[in-house]
Amino acid sequence: MDFESSGCAFDPRRGHLSFMSNPQSDLQLIRILAERLERISVDSVWAHRASGLRGSLIRVMEQLEAGEYVSKQTLVILYERGFYILEQAARAK
Fold it and tell me: Which residue, of 36, 50, 55, 76, has the greatest Cβ tally within 10 A?
């Protein structure tokens, strides 16, 4: 999947997300992050953090699906934490 074309991308050179989001691309990215976080092995030290973040992502996804406002700052924080946890879990493997 090309996140650039959907308006959201992690730029490793800058170390943060750059995006021009819309609710559909946010929902898509939230779903992908939640699915990936769920796959982290329970043996990993990152599993507990992933579980908590996954809960937050699901709550935000429900808000977006209900048409409620979610601030860009909230989304960016969740995305950055999600990518960080995934990166750390992959390194720990």
Answer: 50
What are the φ/ψ torsions at residue 19 (nearest 5 degrees)? -160, 155
Residue 2's pLDDT is 39
Residues 6+ apart with CB under 8 A from 37: 50, 51, 53, 54, 57, 82, 85, 86
Q: Which two tokens stand for residue 73?
A: 């700052």
Is 71 exposed, middle or buried (CB count within 10 Å of its CB: 0-12, 13-18, 19+)?
A: exposed
Average pLDDT estimate for 46-65: 96
Q: What is the largest CA-CA distance in the chain?
A: 38
Q: Which two tokens stand for residue 67?
A: 């048409």
User: 19 in the Ramachandran plot: left (φ > 0), alpha (ψ -120 to 50) or beta?
Assistant: beta
Q: What angle do CA 15, 26, 92 make, to 5 degrees?
A: 45
Task: Report pTM.
Answer: 0.75
